[in-house]
């Protein structure tokens, strides 16, 4: 039977089990042989990572052709206008081409664990939160999209992949599905 694990990846942890440097990896948190991450999450991002020993499931999650929805909670610099949120929803033009349409909305600050290290706070610039659901996963896509609308990402948390969520899963912890 296939094994599938949900992991809440902390900030500054690589989405792989080995590293040539002295950086934190999945091996520092997960001692389960034979499972591999289905997709990646940048070192400076937090949140849901699905690991499995099922190659087909891994492909369905990570391949853009299957369009698995991935939802992110994004703390951005500034207060995005309705037009900026609409632009994210319609898709923005990045250097590697237009993004697919997405679901985008402003949200109240979520009740989350503190980030280590904390985000930089600037007295003169407020911050706000966006919920963004994508069906593609280009390199650093969310960060590039928010920068494109003039609101750089301060904190990025992948909250869900398909029906799997981080709900009730603390940072650095895992849960079998």
What report would you give on this structure?
- The protein is of the alpha+beta class and 177 residues long.
- It has 2 domains: 4-64 and 163-176, Alpha-Beta Plaits; 69-161, 2-Layer Sandwich (Alpha-Beta Plaits), CATH 3.30.70.1560.
- It contains 3 helices and 11 strands.
- The two termini are 12 Å apart.
- The model has no long low-confidence stretch (mean pLDDT 93).
Keyword list:
single chain; 177 residues; alpha+beta; Alpha-Beta Plaits; 2 domains; nine-stranded mixed sheet; two-stranded antiparallel sheet
Q: pLDDT average, as an integer?
A: 93
Helix share bin: 10-25%
Q: Sheet with the most strands?
A: 9 strands, mixed
CATH class of the largest domain: Alpha Beta
Q: Uncertain regions: pLDDT < 50 for 5+ in a row?
A: none
In total, how many beta strands? 11
> What is the CATH architecture annotation of the largest domain?
2-Layer Sandwich
As for the number of domains, it is: 2
Helices, by number, come to 3
Report the portion of residues in β strands: 25-35%
Separation, N- and C-terminal Cα atoms: 12 Å
* Fourth-tier CATH superfamily name of the largest domain: Alpha-L RNA-binding motif
Tell me, briefly, the overall form.
Answer: globular
The name CATH uses for the topology of the largest domain is Alpha-Beta Plaits
Quaternary organisation: single chain
What is the H/E string? EEEHEHEEEEHEEE
Secondary-structure-based class equals: alpha+beta
Radius of gyration: 16 Å
């Amino acid at each position: 039977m296939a094994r599938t694990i949900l992991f809440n990846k902390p900030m500054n942890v690589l989405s792989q089990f080995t590293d040539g440097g002295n950086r934190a990896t999945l091996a520092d948190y997960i001692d389960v042989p034979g499972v591999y991450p289905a997709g990646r999450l940048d070192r400076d991002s937090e949140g849901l990572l699905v690991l499995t020993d099922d190659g087909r499931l891994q492909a369905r999650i990570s391949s853009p052709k299957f369009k698995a929805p991935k939802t992110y909670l994004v703390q951005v610099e500034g207060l995005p206008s309705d037009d900026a949120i609409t632009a994210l929803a319609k898709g923005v033009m990045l250097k590697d081409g237009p993004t697919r349409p997405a679901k985008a909305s402003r949200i109240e600050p979520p009740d989350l664990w503190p980030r280590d290290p904390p985000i930089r706070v600037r007295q003169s610039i407020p911050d706000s939160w966006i919920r963004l659901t994508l069906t593609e996963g280009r390199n650093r896509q969310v960060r590039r999209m928010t920068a494109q609308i003039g609101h750089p990402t301060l904190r990025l948390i992948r909250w869900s992949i398909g029906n799997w969520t981080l709900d009730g899963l603390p940072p650095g912890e895992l849960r079998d599905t």
